[in-house]
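Let us begin with a simple case.
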Amino acid sequence: DDDDDDDVDWGEEDDPVAISDEGYHLRPEPADGTPDICTIRFLFDDMSKVQRRFYLDDTVEALLMYVTETSGKPSGTFQLMTTHPRKCISEQPTATLRSHQFTRAQLRVEAI
């Protein structure tokens, strides 16, 4: 009987933030030109910038996790703010980037 599930792809890469034995991790960055993606530029207090592509179905939680992984800032010590209009998006961690209507966006990473 070949009911071995070891080779079955359970779609973990389709989740914006997937759970593994090590905890949460981000999906790989989508390639340029992939449909339904957006580019986010993160602006830090020290004037440094990083940029990454995300899927529109990724959540704000994925952005928070990316900032933590890239900057080393512990979660809960910063918030993500849109620039125009100025709005904190960190308060809605399960909201998708599509719901914020992001295609290209700049987000300020501000200390709390």
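The second case is a distinct protein. As before, the sequence precedes its structure tokens.
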Amino acid sequence: VQHEFEYIYQVLEDNRRNYNSLMRGIHHHERQIKCADGSSIGFENDNYCDCVGDGSDERSTSACSHVTVGHRVFQCQNDRDTWIFASRVGDGIMDCPDGSDEK
């Protein structure tokens, strides 16, 4: 019974995520991408963490910082050698020399 419950819960959760992603895409026209870990489909940089397994849809926002903690995932625009943590993107403090983390 426990296994059946877990399966049903996973199906419902996947459907909820896909529906939410679809609705945000319709309203915001973000670019739809497949999560890097293959788990689901997300919308790139819409400030909502669709790819909860790896955070690959939110490399330019802090929405998945709870998933990407400890990994530098945002690359500064004019300084390709500088990578910062997702939690520092859009926090009101310029971490990139060009300020691209706050644009």
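The mean pLDDT is 80. The radius of gyration is 16 Å.
Keep these points in mind for the review questions at the end of the chapter.
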